[in-house]
Amino acid sequence: MDPFALAVDASFERMGIDGILDPDVIARPVKLLPQRPDEFVDVGSFSVQAESGLYHVRPSDMAGYGKGAILEIAGERRRVQSAPRSSDPRRLKLLLNTVAI
């Protein structure tokens, strides 16, 4: 197997947080790697950090899901805001942009 794929899998297993994809229907358990968004929105003289939550997920875990999918993370429900996009050139993980619902 590709050593890069093994390293990504090990990262998800060792550092990933537990989540549930589609908790109301299939309730598929997934591992997520959180990423803190750096986006700040300037509103007049205020600078506010975006409310979105970014998470990396394995492509196989998101197979058949896309924009609008629901994740439950530590009891908090989040909706995927846009189509998952590949966040690395080898396409070993996807980046999900989510918002609390």
From TrEMBL:
GO terms for biological process: virion assembly. It holds the Pfam family Phage_attach. InterPro entries: Phage_tail_attach_FII (IPR008018). It comes from the Bacteria. This is Uncharacterized protein. It comes from Roseivivax marinus. The lineage of its organism: Bacteria, Pseudomonadati, Pseudomonadota, Alphaproteobacteria, Rhodobacterales.
